[in-house]
Amino acid sequence: MDQDALIRIADALERMSPAPMSAPDFDSADAFVWHVSPDRLAPVPEVSRVKIDLLIGVDRSRDTLLKNTLQFAKGLPANNALLWGARGMGKSSLVKAVHAEVLKQGEALKVVELQREDLPSVTRLLSLLRGSQHRFLLFCDDLSFSHDDQHYKSLKAVLDGGIEGRPENVVFYATSNRRHLMPRDMIENERGSAINPSEAVEEKVSLSDRFGLWLGFHPCDQDQYLAMIRGYCDAHGVVIDDEALRAEAIEWQATRGARSGRVAWQYFVDLAGRQGVAIG
Hints:
The protein is α/β, with parallel strands linked by helices. It contains ten helices and seven strands.
């Protein structure tokens, strides 16, 4: 076999099984996004987030999550956290806002965002983070599992860590619309069709039990909805009287068929745009 053929074979083998990636410069940013094919951690120079004091109606969850995160950043024991509940009520915004508040208080903490579809690669990511002197908040947004979805097995590597255990310098936060990370009808179907109903769903349902913190988010009432918008207006210098804000905001939510923090922000963006105010 000639030399050119050997080189082509070697290149093909390297593509199939690439060498382990080297750790990036973690001092270059406070936030990173994990990508695969090839494995890499991409720095995020500026994180898109809302200030923590603009998150209305989640005071208890805010205080609990901030306390847990500060403990972890200081090298103290801390729990993995599952933020679950109503859509658009600030679950992912709270995680990012808490991270910013921890940095503001002078603690060093990196956040790494992991996509749900990349969970099978999490063991490689943990191996990379384990060798660093930094502390990491590993964040997965909108986490849930459907029927025959095997990604939940990869999640156990984060929550339990296998024989090595979860790295001491990593904590895992996830958001989900489902308390047990899987549809209710899926749980009921498996219970009804299995020979041993309790064992049929125990493995998947027990995933949520592995989170030390469960923080619930519920739909906001009208007063909270209006308070969110007023907070955004005051923070960004958008001027509107209470009567006009109330009338417009209630009409806006009626056209969306829902009331939530996300709907409040969408109305505010429209209002700021109409007034020619840049919100950055």
